[in-house]
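User: Thanks for the earlier help. One more: peptidylprolyl isomerase. Can you show the sequence and predicted structure together?

Assistant: Of course, both are below.
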Amino acid sequence: MKKGIIILVAAALGLSACNKFEKGEGDMTYKIYKSEGKPKIQDGDYVKLNGVQTVETNTNPDSVMVNTYDNERPAFFAISKSMFKGDLASGLKLLGEGDSAIFKLNLDSMEKYSGQPKPKGLKSNIASFTIKIEKVLHKGKDPDSIFEAKKRLFFEAEYRALNEKNKRVEPAKIAKYVEENNLKVTTAPSGLQYVIYAPGNSERATLTDTVLMDYTGQFTNKKSNGALNVFDTSNAKIAKEAGIFSENVQYVPRSLPLGQLPQGVIQGIQLIGVGGKIKLILPSRLGFGENGGGPINPFTPLVFDVELKGIIKPNAAVPLAK
C-alpha cells in the first residue's frame, strides 16, 4: 500500500488527529491533507478518486461504509451542481488533481436530498469522507457532446489500465495469500489450488445436481483494518464481522445448482462428499474471468471456504445427508 493511501485510510479509521477542521458550506467541516496547487474541480468536471466513507455507530466509532482501496476499484465521479450546502460535491470543488482531504457531512441532509436512508444504530449524525483525487478531466468550454466523448475515452483508458494491472499482479496475489496463510495447497491441472480439511462421505455431486452448502467467498487481499475481505457468505457471524450483514438475507446453507457455479467452485465441490470441507483458491479464469461481475473486478482471484451439507438429485425432494 502506498504511503499516501496509508495516510488516507489511517485518517478514515480515526488514527490521525481530527483537530484543525475548517468550516465549509452548510454543516460541512473539512481538513485538507495535501494540495498540489492544480486547478480546482468545477461543475461539469469528471474525476477519478479513491475514498473511504465512515460513520460512528453505537458499536463502532469508525464503521466503514465504503472503501475503494479494499475494493481495489476507484470511483469515477461526475461533478454536478450541489444538492444542498455542504454536500460532497461542494467539498470536492475545494480540491484539484492529486489533492487529498477529509470531509464531515450531515447525514440528515444527505438522507433528505439523496433519498437514501441513514445506516441503523448511529451514535452521531456525521459521515466522514476521506478522499484522494487521482485524476481530473476538466470540462472547460467543451460542448456537452464533445465532453461526453472525452469522458468515455477517459474512462475506457483508465478501466483498461486497471484491468491490465489486475491481470499482471494476479499470480502474485495468489502466491501471497498462500504464503501469508501458511497453506499446503494441492494444485489441480486446471490451476485450481485447494486444501481439503474434511473429505466427507463417498457421495459426489454431478453437474445436474443441486448442492446444499455453507460458504464464504473472499478476496485474497485483506481489508485496510486487517479483517478478511469477504464479499459473500451464508454465515451471519462472518457477515457481521465483515460489515456486509443484511437484515434482508437469510443466513442459512444455500441450495445452488452445481452447474451454474464458477468453474473453480464446481471442480472443488466435486472433490468432497457430504460433510466435506474445502478451501478453494480460484485464478480468475476459473472464477469471473476478464469481465468480473458485481463487486468482483476483472482478473480477480477468489477464495471460497465451502462445507458441503447435502446433494439434491434431480426431482429429489430432500438432500442426501451425511
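User: Great, one quick takeaway?

Assistant: The CA atoms of residues 7 and 164 lie 26 Å apart.
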